[in-house]
Design a protein that fits this description.
By secondary structure, the chain is mostly helical. The chain contains six helices and no strands. This is Putative transmembrane protein 42-like.
Length: about 130
């Protein structure tokens, strides 16, 4: 596995973690069920801090993925797919969410596109110039 794909996968996971932190910091329902009322405000503040921290690290990893990848589309689609899958997993584990058939169809199409992008050979600059000249 190349370094850019690891960075892109981590960026997607961190993006999902940031979304989870936002949901926990704004909607107090799940936190209220897990702790006493006295801990609710500090935990919501902690989730708010985690939101910004996860976003900062996510953008760092996404930038590294873009820098190391030959195609920005590959890095973007890999990050998006990782985000979708991580969000589905965290939503199921933390909130007990389920997804409709249409959601699964959408993520399947996204993953198929990801496989096509990963399977295609990267174009060299000379190949791009040759196509431009035609």
């Amino acid at each position: 596995m190349s370094s850019w794909s690891v960075y892109a996968l981590l960026a997607g996971v961190l993006s999902a973690a940031a979304s989870l932190s936002a949901k926990l910091s704004v909607g107090a329902g799940p936190l209220r069920d897990m702790c006493e009322a006295a801990l609710l405000v500090p935990l919501r503040l902690l989730c708010g801090v985690l939101l910004f921290a996860c976003n900062a690290v996510m953008w760092t990893f996404f930038s590294k993925a873009l820098r190391h990848c030959s195609s920005s589309a590959r890095a973007t689609v890999t990050t998006t797919a990782s985000n979708f899958i991580s969000s589905a997993f965290l939503g199921r584990v933390i909130f007990g969410e389920t997804h409709a058939l249409l959601w699964w169809l959408g993520i399947s199409i996204t993953l198929c596109g990801l496989l096509v992008l990963h399977g295609a050979a990267p174009r060299t600059p000379s190949q791009a110039e040759d196509e431009k000249d035609k």
